Each structure stands twice: as C-alpha cells, then as structure tokens.
Amino acid sequence: MKWVLRLAATVCPVLAGAQDAVQLPEFGVNSPRISNQVPVGTFAMPVSALRYDPRVDLHGRNLAEAQADVTVRGGTFENTGFQVGAVTLGDPQTGHYFAEIPVAPAMLTAPVLATGTELALGAANATAGAISQGWRSIRSGGSIAAAVGSFDLVRGEVHLGAEMAWKNTKGRRIGADVAVAHSASDGSLPYGESRFDRVNGRIQTRDANSQTDLFAGYQAKFFGWPNLYTPFNSNETENLQTVLLALNHRVTHGAGEFLEAGVFHRRHRDDYAFNRFAPVGPVHPFQHTTWLSGAALSARHSLGTWQVNLRAEAAADRLRSTSLTFGRYNSRTSGRVVVLPEREWRETDGVTRLRFGAAYDATNCNGAAISPQAEWAREFAGRGLRQVRLGFAQASQVPTYTALNSNPAAGLFRGNAGLGRQTSRTVEAAAVAAAGGWLAEAAIFGRRDEALVDWTFRRGVTARTANAVDLDVAGVEIVARREWSRVDAVLGYTALTKTPDYRGAGADASFYALNYARHRLTAAVTLRLTREVTLRMDNVLQRQAANLLRNVGGRDAFLTSSAVAYRPSAWPGLEFSLQAENLWNEAFQSVPAVPAAKRQVAFGVTRVW
Fold it and tell me: Minimal CA–CA distance to 188: which of 42, 58, 62, 67?
C-alpha cells in the first residue's frame, strides 16, 4: 500500500501539471536525464549526474559522492569506464575509485553513456559501458551556492569564469575559470561523518572550430561509515586525495569530422581504516598511492563515401602500497588502437549505415586481445520509427591491483595474482521511435562475460575473495522522454537476468556481479507549479536479485530525491531550494551489508550570473 501512495505522489503532479506554458530561467544542467542536478549531502561531483540515470545503476556507500560503484547493463563497479575529453580516467588500484574525478561539473558537458561499438571508441579498460564528458566552453559569469541541513550539514561552492577576444586574432577567444567547493556533515549514522574539499582551475582558448583546455584540480575527501566495505560490523573510514592535470584539444570540421587529443596525469592517495579506533602505529595497514599518466587521440575522417573512426591511447600506471604486496608486479603500461570504418547510403526515405572494425588492446603484463566490432543501422525520415540498429561488440580489460596483489591466504580482502584478461561479447538490437509527443529508445541485449573479476563471500570465511566468474547476462532497456508546457518527464525501465559460473570456486554470495536489479523503474519529473516555483523529483522503484549478504531492508526499494525551488522574478538568477534525499527513509542496502543513509534535508540558496 505504501508503494501505491508513493507512486501517486509522483504521478499525480505530472497529470495535474500538463497545462499552459511557463518559461523559467535555466540553471546549470549536469544531466538532462535527472531532475535534481545538485545532491543534498554535499556539493555536486561528476558522479552526481548519474544518481538516478535510467541507464545507470549506482551503488553508493554513505553518500553517492562519498563512494559509489557505477554499473551499466548488469556490469560490476570495474566494468564501467570514464572518459573526459579525449582521455580515459581510472584508478589502477580499484574500480571503487574510477569515479574520483576532481572536476567541477560546471566545467564539463552532460554525461553520455556509450555501449556497443560506441564503447570501443570511448574509454579503455571497460567491458559494459563508459561515461563520457567533454570540456564545456567558458563563459563570463559565475555562480555561488550555500546550504545547511540535517546532521549538521554545511556546504558551499563558488564558480567564476571570464573570457574575452584574443588580441590580433580572428574569432579566437581566451578564458579562464576557477571553482572552489567545501562540505561537512556529521552523517546520518554514528561515525558516518564527511569532510570534502575541491579546488579547480582552467585556462581555455577557442574559436568557431576548435577548443583547447588546460586543467588542474585537487580533491580531498574524508568520510566514515559502518560496514563501508566489509560485513563485520566495523566503523571504517576513507581518506582520499586526488590530483588531476589535463591538457585537451579538439578541432571539428564539416560532415561530423573531428580530431581530439589529450594528455593527463592523475595521482590518487588512499588511507583506508577497517577499524577507526584500532591503534595504527606509525603506518596504517591499508595505505595506497597510485599514479596514472596517459595520452589519447580520437578522430573521424571522410574518405570519399567512407567515414573512418579512429582511436589510439597509451597509459602507464604505478602502485605504492603497505598491503598490496603479494602480486607479480606493481607497474604496468598499456596501449590501445581502434579502427572502425563506416559506410553510409542515403535514400529518399532515410539513411542506412554500416560500421565494422576492431580494437586492439595490449599491456606489458597481461597479453593482448583483438576485439571485433560490427553495427548496422537504419534511420527513417518523417516516420514514428526513427531508427533501428543491430550490433555485435567485443571488449576486453585487465584486473586492478587490489584483486591481483592482495594476500591470497589471509586478511580482509584476498586476492589472486593469477587473474588475467577478461572479455565480454555483446549482441544488441535497438530502436528509437516517436509517438504521441514521446521520444523513446529501447534495446534488448545479451552479453557473455568471461573471466570477470568478482568479490565473493563464503560461509565460515571472514574475508571477501577475488574470483573469476563467467556470466551470461540478458537485459532490456527502455528510456522515454516527453515535455509538456508545465512538466518534463523522463521514464526508464530495465530488466536483467544473470547466469553465473564461478569455475569451481566456492561462492555463497557475491558483493558485485550478482548484486543487480532484476527490475528497475525510474521517473525524473520536473513540474513548474508557477512562474516562480518548481517541484523536482527523481524516483527509483526496483527489485534486487536475492543476496544472503543483504541483511536489512529487503530486496525492494522505492527511493526518491525531491526539491522545491523558488526563483523570485524580482531577482533574476536567484534560487531558494528545499531538498530531501531518501524522502521515504528507505533502509534498502544498495551494496549488500552496507547500511543505507537515512533521510536528509537541506535548505539552499544559489545565485547565478
């Protein structure tokens, strides 16, 4: 009965609000697929735009911005890649830190999800999907935001930008922007406090066809949470510091041609405490530092009736750790080359496209793999059915150091130095259609994951163990969007099923590969109540696969993030907001055995100019 009432609270405003047009000033949009662009418990980070995305299932600990595993199409926390500009950003120690990107969302374009052959042209070392974002053009102006809330929350953020014409150049402009953010909270559970800080600076030059960005960023995060990574009723903490330096250049031409190149350096320090009250002596037992540097180039070029899609990248990583010392190596270099020719046939009623090619991945420690790619697509002109496509894509990746170098016989996290390259093969059929004012995209897919790295639990063993698993994954995805005069709505539905084979390894439960939503329904609703008042709601209703590690909250969840915003017409650019996260105070464990954060409320003020 409570779900019926909650659904009514979401649906009724949509039905009631589809009326006359009301225009409101635009504030920053980090993602067009969610309604609430700013989280409640801290300042916005790139991962914030994925919290209620219909095609992304985000498994958070404490706040999503504290630590979140980003999964796509039933993958795990290490199967999703992240691309900013031309380069792939990640963390060689563990996929838990892939989303540690110390960049203000105001500097980035909205995230785009890449799967299939688009994944091949996107982030490296990912097999399920990738999140891609570009560098946003700098504009003169800025924003300042502040909020206070429950559990002694305080947060604030400033973003300032300036740009002008470059002397003695035709159409070229130069600009710079800076962003500073801070938040602190006691947390919704005892010993669940957080303190986050971020500082960014960027210089940019651009003209009508090109843009160059030079970026430097630093982010520090301290947070605690009971059972943060382990199910043993311990109060754990993380202390993270991330530095990112990046240079990116993009040139566009006619007919969709472009060239984008970038270089970067990332350093990530992690001091993890299993028991925050244990005496630690001069050296904490779990301290890790990783360095990752790389360069990448992507291009699309016309050769007569053919378009050639190209991507090449190289990276080198290094690990220093007090505990990850049981593997065969602690540094690695990798390279990748992708070539995908594409042919287009134009007809009176539409366009047919054929794309095929391969990706070549190699490292000096894990061998190499060739991954074939093929896709056929048909676009229709002036019809309800806009596009259909069929595709096959193979992808490959290598394990991270936590899986490879943890002690295989003792400790909380037991590794396996023999883990090797993992491969996925995906077959997909998809369509895009428009009807009755709705625009919808649907896909049905099957994926075979071989030698996927998973962390498993076995009764009687007080540790989690890295094991290889073969998985057959089948799924359906549907995303639909419609805009009325007073209402914007984005609806999503995903259904997944998995068949695992752990190759004889004992596994009574899985923390990641078998932690997935069998059914997941999302609804992002923006309702313009008046010219000055807006109601925004993001909702997720899901049923999770059974998992014996999930000891509180059950398999079902109805999660809502809501906000009421008031923008007085007398003061353009000013917004007062009242936000609530986990509105229904659900106890659902997004990660098995990790307690859910309680309802949190915040009052905020934002000024944009």
Answer: 62
Closest CA to 45 of 130, 106, 125: 106
pLDDT tens per residue across span 208-232? 999 999 999 999 999 999 999 988 8
Quote the CA–CA distance of 125 and 364 in Å, as a whole number.
14
Task: Indicate the pTM of the whole model.
Answer: 0.94
Question: What pLDDT is recorded for position 16?
Answer: 45
Q: Tell me the percentage of the chain whose pLDDT exceeds 90.
A: 84
> DSSP assignment of 553-574, as one string?
S-SEEEEEEEEEEE--TTSTTE
Instruction: State residue 233 phi and psi, 5-degree precision.
Output: 55, 45
Residue 77 domain boundaries: 2-608
Judge whether 488 and 549 are in contact, CB under 8 Å.
no
Query: Which pLDDT does position 170 carry in this prediction?
Result: 82
Q: Distance from CA of residue 177 to its chain's centroid?
A: 24
Tokens, residue 79: 């199967």
DSSP 585-607: -----SSTTSPPPPPEEEEEEEE
- What's the pLDDT tens digit per position in 182-211? 999 999 999 999 999 999 999 999 999 999
| Alpha carbon distance 377, 429 (integer Å) | 10
Burial-class residue 196 by CB neighbours within 10 Å (0-12, 13-18, 19+). Answer: buried
How far is 362 from 152, CA to CA, in rounded Å?
49
Token pair recorded at residue 35:
């309604």
Q: What local confidence, expressed as pLDDT, does residue 283 receive?
A: 63
What is the domain count for the chain?
Answer: 1
**Mean pLDDT calculated for residue range 307-334:** 97
* 348 Cβ contact list (under 8 Å, min separation 6): none
What pLDDT score was predicted for residue 167?
Answer: 81
When the pLDDT of each residue in the chain is averaged and rounded to a whole number, the result is: 93
- The answer, yes or no, to whether residue 281 has pLDDT greater than 70, is no
CATH number of the domain where residue 224 is located: 2.40.170.20
Rounded Cα gap, residues 440 and 562, in angstroms? 24
The whole-number average pLDDT for the span 88-117 is: 97
Cβ atoms of residues 174 and 166 within 8 Å: yes
Q: Could you write out the three-class secondary structure of 469-498?
A: EEEEEEEEEEEEEEECCCEEEEEEEEEEEE
Q: What is the CA angle 103-105-108, rounded to 5? A: 85
**Does the structure show a pLDDT above 60 at 282?**
no
Q: Is the pLDDT of residue 100 over 60?
A: yes
Q: Are the CB atoms for 44 and 52 separated by under 8 Å? A: no
Nearest to 242 by CA among 276, 265, 259, 275: 265
State the DSSP string of 319-370: EEESS--SSS-SEEEEEEEEEEEEEEEEETTEEEEEEEEEEEEEESSS-EEE
pLDDT grade, residue 27 (50/70/90)? low
Q: Dig out the tokens for 311 from the structure.
A: 């991507």
